[in-house]
């Protein structure tokens, strides 16, 4: 997907394709890891399992957001959680603490379920919805950046997020 304003806006199908491409890339990396690699924390304190629990929470949040539901409870966050109150790092810390002791099997099941839920939610949108602002989807959670098209939140919480954490996992376990 491009940010070039001369290009036509992406369609829901374009977005779904981008999500699936990055999902498959993530799955390929995960298929090469053993149980120890999935559960051993890296330098920054998160294991691969923690990265995956984090991805699952944010995918749940985007599914709720585009369905115009409260997004924080499905993420395992307090009802009043928000980037402008807790900060993204504070939200991520709560997600980490909540899932730290969850068995790998359960994290993987939740990740797959959250991914399917995000795909289903995005598929419910029309192409024109992708350019509607965040505040249209979450009027109860108005934000200073609420004018941002929902497309960028979908990207940042699905395929862009998958790519970011896939790269983190690859760096964690690279032999170099």
Characterise the protein shown here.
The chain is mainly α. The protein has one domain (47-173). It has 8 helices and no strands. It has helices spanning 12-31, 35-39, 48-66, 87-99, 104-123, 134-137, 150-157, 159-173. Helix 1 runs antiparallel to helix 5 (104-123) and helix 3 packs parallel to helix 5 (104-123). The model has no long low-confidence stretch (mean pLDDT 90).
Please give a quick description of this structure.
The chain is mainly α and 176 residues long.
N-to-C SSE string, H for helix and E for strand: HHHHHHHH
Cα-atom radius of gyration: 16 Å
Total count of helical runs of at least 4 residues: 8
Shape: globular
- Would you identify the regions where 5 or more consecutive residues have pLDDT less than 50? none
Give the CA-CA distance, first to last residue.
Answer: 31 Å
Mean pLDDT across all amino acids? 90
List how many beta strands DSSP finds. Answer: 0
β-strand percent reads: under 5%
The domain tally reads 1
Overall helicity: 55-70%
Classification by helices and strands: mainly alpha
Main sheet specs: none
List keywords for this structure.
176 residues; mainly alpha; 8 helices; 59% helix; 0% strand
Topology:
Layout: H1 12-31, H2 35-39, H3 48-66, H4 87-99, H5 104-123, H6 134-137, H7 150-157, H8 159-173
Helix pairs in contact: 1-5, 1-8, 3-4, 3-5, 3-7, 3-8, 7-8
């Amino acid at each position: 997907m491009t940010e070039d304003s001369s290009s036509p806006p992406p369609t829901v199908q374009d977005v779904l394709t981008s999500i699936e491409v990055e999902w498959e890339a993530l799955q390929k990396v995960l298929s090469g890891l053993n149980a120890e690699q999935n559960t051993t924390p890296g330098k920054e304190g998160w294991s691969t399992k923690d990265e995956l629990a984090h991805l699952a929470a944010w995918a749940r949040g985007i599914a709720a957001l585009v369905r115009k539901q409260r997004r924080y409870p499905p993420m395992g966050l307090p009802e009043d959680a928000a980037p402008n109150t807790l900060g993204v790092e504070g939200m991520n810390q709560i997600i980490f603490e909540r899932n730290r002791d969850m068995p790998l099997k359960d994290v993987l099941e939740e990740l797959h379920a959250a991914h399917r839920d995000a795909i289903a939610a995005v598929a419910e949108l029309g192409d024109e919805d992708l350019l509607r602002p965040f505040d249209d989807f979450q009027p109860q959670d108005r934000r200073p950046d609420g004018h941002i098209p929902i497309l960028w939140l979908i990207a940042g919480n699905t395929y862009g997020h998958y790519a970011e954490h896939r790269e983190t996992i690859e760096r964690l376990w690279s032999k170099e």
